[in-house]
Amino acid sequence: MASPSRCICLRGGPNWAAVAAILNDADEVLVIKRVRRSGDPWSGHAALPGGRWKPGETLIVTAMREAEEEVGIRLGLDNLVGILSPKSPRNAPHIKVLPVVFRTGRVCPAINRGEVEEAVWVGLETLRRSHVAGERPHYRVGNIVIWGLTYRILRSLLACLEKTGERP
Prior knowledge:
Largest sheet: 4 strands, mixed
Structural class: alpha+beta
CATH class: Alpha Beta
Order of helices and strands: HEEEEHEEEHEEEH
Distance between the termini: 15 Å
Radius of gyration: 15 Å
Helix content: 10-25%
CATH superfamily: Nucleoside Triphosphate Pyrophosphohydrolase
Number of helices: 4
CATH architecture: Alpha-Beta Complex
Strand content: 25-35%
């Protein structure tokens, strides 16, 4: 993961988005299930809180704004752990998504029902144990299936945490 001092200058742009990988003190990550919406290719999918960049903000600010809008969690630079490499959805390779990693206490999400159907804290160790390999690799945690871009981001997060010796 890049250090926070290297992250803050990330400017974003029209085809950029950011997601907040929010870790808590119990080594869990917050995963949301998006509401079902006509015309939304990621409708109903498991995801991390996040969304499109807006002019005048950095990608770090985008991730913080989206976390507050979607799950009511106010994050600041003091919560910032670092960033992961940008990734693109396979069905929209022109979009670049920057995963921004934060750490906070175990707060209760205040879900914005217009955007989020469900929000759950998932243990990082649970993710490791729930990995399903194959043609469409994914994590299965209860009734939540995490695949695609979110799966790839969480795989990168777990690998990075192991490599750097961060918890868990």
